[in-house]
Amino acid sequence: MPESVYLNGEWLAPEAAKVSVFDRGFLFADGIYEVVPVYHGHPFLLEDHLARLERSLAALEIANPGQAFWLDLIQQLLTRNHSQDALVYIQVTRGAEAKRSHLPQGPLQPTIFASVSAMPVHWDVPTPVKVTLLDDIRWLRCDIKSISLLGNIMLKQQAQACGALEPLLHRNGLVTEGASSNYFAVKDGAIYTAPTDHLILPGITRMWVLKLAKELAIPVHEQAFSVADLAQLDELFLTSSSREVQPIGQIDDIIIGQGGCGEITERLVHAFHASKRQLSAQ
After folding, report:
1. What would the DSSP string read from start to end of the chain?
2. pLDDT at 229 > cutoff 80
3. Which tens digits make up the pLDDT trace of 38-97?
4. Distance, CA of 195 to chain centre
């Protein structure tokens, strides 16, 4: 647990941080969040995370205090908690009002909360995991990093019941993403991943891995792959801020490749580790 969290201009012990029962985040999940990985005290790809935070706030028409505010907040959060390898969590809701109403009753003062948690950092090639194929039951604005995560939670519970790390979600026969990750398929030496539209969250790690793939001269297609093609894939992996590049060896009863980490996935794992070292040393 962190020593100190930020809430609406105050630095508090976690147990002392309270929000109003009329906060729209509590009543309606009317808010957004962002998660920033930190290596050796340096936020990773921070400008990209803050740009996505700005897009999410703009989509909900919630006021953004600006980049200087976020930079100072994150630095203070890391300093006060003596954090080196960590995940920074930021949440902004529309704020609290005097009564419960679906339609906000005029401009409100946003509720801003931030905390940090320790993140174990690995430098090896992760062991391949199992995922499970599930219908994507979530809403149609997955590009907004909304705190309304009930669909994601239900899907993660179903995946856990199947002995899987993550759900592999699909709509109309096409793979979208995971409950908290993006997916990449490898076939005949090329990478395929769903395009950044309203059906997926544009992951920052996803964006970075696509950049690394292009630097490694690996062909990239931002094109959704189909459920019908899963059994013929050469490799499959997912990305997220906490998992980085995670190889997948099995989808339900389908073994991908030979169940191990494929060559292209392994190259991207090593490239990601190298970029962590480089950016955290700057």
Report:
1. --S-EEETTEEE-GGG----TTBHHHHH--EEEEEEEEETTEETTHHHHHHHHHHHHHHHT-----HHHHHHHHHHHHHHTT-SSEEEEEEEE--B-SS--SS--S--PPEEEEEEEE-----SPPPPEEEEEEE--S-S-TTS-BS--HHHHHHHHHHHHTT-SEEEEEETTEE---SS-EEEEEETTEEE---SSTTS---HHHHHHHHHHHHTT--EE--PPBGGGGGG-SEEEEEETTTEEEEEEEETTEEPTTSS--HHHHHHHHHHHHHHHHHHT-
2. yes
3. 999 999 999 999 999 999 999 999 999 999 999 999 999 999 999 999 999 999 999 999
4. 16
Confidence at residue 106, expressed as pLDDT on a 0 to 100 scale:
81
Please name the amino acid found at residue 165.
L
Q: Which residue has the tokens 């395929």?
A: 192
For the domain 5-118, what is the CATH code?
Answer: 3.30.470.10
pLDDT 10s digits, 162-173: 999 999 999 999
| Active centre residues (catalytic) | 145
Q: What tokens appear for 6 in the block?
A: 């930020």
Q: How far apart are CA 264 and CA 248, in angstroms?
A: 12
CATH for 129-280, among 3.20.10.10, 3.40.50.11090, 3.30.365.10, 2.30.30.40?
3.20.10.10
Q: How would residue 282 be classed by pLDDT, with cut points 50, 70 and 90?
A: low
Buried b (16+ CB within 10 A) or exposed e, 123-157: eeeeebbbbbbbebebeeebbbbbbbbeebeebbe
- Which token pair is 99? 């009564």
| Residue 202 pLDDT exceeds 80 | yes
Let me know how long the chain is: 282
